[in-house]
Each structure stands twice: as C-alpha cells, then as structure tokens.
Amino acid sequence: MIVLDRVNKHFGPLHVLKNVSGEFRKGEVTILCGPSGSGKSTLIRTINRLEEINDGTIHVQGRNIHERGLDVDRFRMNLGFVFQQFNLFPHLTVLDNITLAPRKLKKVPRSVAEDQAASLLRRVGLAGKEKAYPEQISGGQAQRVAIARCLAMNPEIMLFDEPTSALDPEMVSEVLSVISQLAAEGMTMVCVTHEMGFAKAVADSIWFLENGQVHGQYQCRDFFEEDNDARIRLFLSHVNRQ
Ligand code: ADP
Ligand code: MG
User: Fold this and answer.
1) Short-list 8, 75, 10, 37, CA closest to 209
2) Which terminus of the chain is more exposed, N or C, with fewer CB under 10 A?
3) What's the predicted TM-score (pTM) here?
4) In this predicted structure, what is the pLDDT of residue 239?
5) Share above pLDDT 90 across residues of the chain, in percent, rounded to a whole number
6) Is the pLDDT at 242 greater than 60, yes or no?
7) Of 120, 123, 149, 125, whose CA–CA distance to 138 is shortest?
8) Is residue 41 lining ligand 1, measured as CB closer than 6 Å?
9) Ligand 2 center to residue 84 CA distance, Å?
10) Measured from the CB, is residue 37 less than 6 Å from ligand 1?
C-alpha cells in the first residue's frame, strides 16, 4: 500500500532520514517507535507530503507521490492524518470541524455530511457533542473528534503521530480504544507511539528508528521477544518504566 525506497531527508546540515526503505501493507497496523529525535514524525509526514524528501521514492497505492502533475489535495484526501495536538479549528463546532472537508472538498451536501458526522460521533463514543466547541471538550474527546474528522473523508490509510502523548493519562485509553477499533475493522494504519501495550495489542509490524535510520523492522511478536537485540530491550525497559 505504501512503499518507501531509500528515502533521505535533510534539514539543512541535519540528515534526519537515512536510506529508509520498507513497506506498510494493506489492512495492517505498523507502529513506528524509537527515541525522541530519531525521525519518526519526519518519516510519517513524508507519506502525505507534509514533508518533502531529498532523495528516494515513496509509492502510495502504486503511485509515485512525487510524480509531476500529482494533485496533492486529492491525494491527501485518501490519507487521514491525526496530530499530537488534535489541530481542530477552535472557532468551529465539533459538527463543523467534521463536515467542513467533505462539504468543501468533496461537495457533499450539508444534510448528508451532518448525518455522516453524527454517525461518526457515535462511532467514537461522542454522540450528542455536535454543538460543542473544541475548548468545551476534553483532550481525549478532542482527539476522538479529530479522528472522526479524518474518517469523514473515507480515507483508505490513517496516519497517527503520537495521538495520545498530549493527553492526561486517564484519557489515553479512550483514544487508543477508538484506534484499536479501526484496526480491527481492517484500516491500514501507521502510528507513531510510545504506548507499547497498545502496540503489542494492535500492531502487525513494528519499526524501530534511531538516528534517522531504521534499526529494524519486526513482526509484532518478534519485537517483544525476550531474546530480541539489546537495543530494543533497552528501549522497552525505559518505556515500561515510565
Ligand atoms: P521524532 O519524531 O522521532 O522525535 P523528528 O522527526 O521530529 O523526530 O525529528 C528528527 C530530527 O529532525 C530531530 O533532530 C529534529 O530536531 C529535526 N527536525 C525536525 N523538524 C525539523 C525542522 N522543521 N527543521 C529543522 N530540523 C528539524
Ligand atoms: Mg515526533
């Protein structure tokens, strides 16, 4: 579904992605983890061209995403992106946050978009929150609205960059359970997270990044094996102590 081939990215003198290659398969959940600054956000942002790359290729559903003439807005409609900080529009209600893109970009009639939004809100456990403004709901609720907003565009791929790291601890599970539900429904997902219990429960594959390089790509169960390599063991011991 998504194929990276020797992707390189520089920020000035900083070489932040070094020959990153690999594949995110259809219907699978891939977790990206690794220490802070290892390039996880940069990597996930290259997939929908929030970051441009300097070298290498990225194919999404068979198409080179840097080919000339690609309609970036159209391309992005098929990839939902959930940010750490939710990025809801503060001046719009929950309902308008969810219906804006379908109405403006896909020309979905308002009544249809609003019915769909109501059903998405039920799906993320927020029935009846249509009229609330982002500042009137909790962080966990806001992140679930952000997920509903992505789903309103019917994406085939969902990308998450640390979706729970800005949340109070007691709100983490309500967001992770929505993401787990999507995984169970077969959504193709790439998720940056340090929630390793969640990763263990939902991941098909786990990539471990360090210093802009892929240290390893693992089947989920292999990653958590006791006899895994020393670097992974060290990482897991730090994360588990938090
Ligand atoms: P992670 O998400 O794993 O913490 P990032 O992808 O955010 O890592 O960052 C990788 C490296 O790139 C870090 O050294 C970071 O400081 C640097 N970096 C990220 N974004 C920018 C930017 N816009 N300009 C310059 N350097 C950046
Ligand atoms: Mg990051």
Assistant:
1) 37
2) C
3) 0.95
4) 82
5) 93
6) no
7) 125
8) yes
9) 9
10) yes
Return the residue matching tokens 């194919």.
59
Average pLDDT over residues 53-71: 94
The structure tokens listed for 8 are 């390189």
**Ligand 1 centre and the CA of 231: distance in Å?**
21
- Cβ atoms of residues 145 and 93 within 8 Å: no
> If you measure from the C-alpha of residue 16 to the centroid of ligand 1, how many angstroms do you get, rounded to a whole number?
7
Q: Is the CB of 211 under 6 A from ligand 1?
A: no
- What ligand has the least distance to the C-alpha of 33? 1
Contacts 24+ apart (CB under 8 A), 125-133: 125/174, 125/178, 126/94, 129/94, 130/93, 130/94, 130/95, 131/93, 131/94, 131/95, 132/93, 132/94, 133/90, 133/91, 133/92, 133/93, 133/94
Nearest-ligand number for the alpha carbon of 42: 1
- Supply the mean pLDDT for the chain: 95
Closest protein CA for atom 14 of ligand 1: 37
**By C-alpha distance, which of 212, 168, 209 is closest to 190?**
209
With CA atoms as reference, report the closest residue to 187 among 215, 213, 151: 151
Measured in residues, the chain has a length of 242
